Amino acid sequence: MSEAPKRGLGRGLSALLGEVQREQPVAPDAHRPAGVQMLSIASISPNPDQPRRHFDDDALDELAASLAARGLIQPIVVRPRGHGYQIVAGERRWRAAQRARLHEVPVIVRELDDVQTLELAIIENIQRQDLNAIEEAEAYQRLTKQFGHTQEALGKLVNKSRSHIANLLRLLELPESVRVMVASGTLDMGHARALITAPDPEALAREVVERGLSVRETEKLARGGRPPAKRGQSEVPIEYKSADADIGALERHLGDILGLKVQIEHQGKGGRVVIGYSTLDQLDLVCQRLSGEPI
Known about the structure:
Blueprint: H1 11-22, E1 36-40, E2 44-45, H2 57-70, E3 76-81, E4 84-89, H3 91-99, E5 104-109, H4 114-127, H5 133-145, H6 151-158, H7 162-170, H8 176-184, H9 189-195, H10 201-211, H11 215-222, H12 238-241, H13 243-258, E6 262-267, E7 270-275, H14 280-291
């Protein structure tokens, strides 16, 4: 495949995303909205480049039970592929529909190239918070390496800061076993970031999980220090019991969610939260999230 030109979120994809977001649910036995059609499940195939790799079986069973009783309400977005159709957004719903033994599902058919398909799949999954940190990082890496996106362009595409993109991509430097821990939720992103520069991240990751260390303790361990033998014992140093460690972890957690630098200044019973931004787009993103408006 020839290399696609470098670009960010184009007008075509932006319009498509807005149209998909505005698409009304298909009520059972109701007239279908314009643009929605029914396709047989057998004619639809998943996208092998779908960013999301992990699908929880219990959650799929719950959704399948709901679909069996009420049918699929939210249409799946597909594109023509070969003699059938390929999923752009909605693979989880398609999988659950199969388990529910549905024969047809409502879909929206769109003509999309490979770049638009991957971009839209990433945006849809991120908005639904369906991707774990490793899946998100691998999707960004593919857009960077195969389609020539810059980190700045990726940030604009998904309304995240460049530093957020860079931090996620750095997770891919970790050994495979550690990435699996992050993908499964055994190890969170804050712990994983602390292990990137450690001399033996695999061994340290196992120790972090076995001992239930905090992010602050993990950072000290990665620097060559030794956190307390057991959490909760009286000999735990006071620094690990202080509010500073919790505030630092909260800053990192909020920073990962927003993709921006967050600073918490706590004094007595009050304080302030400072969110740094470098562009008006990032400021607009913060305002939308604080006001509860759809992004």
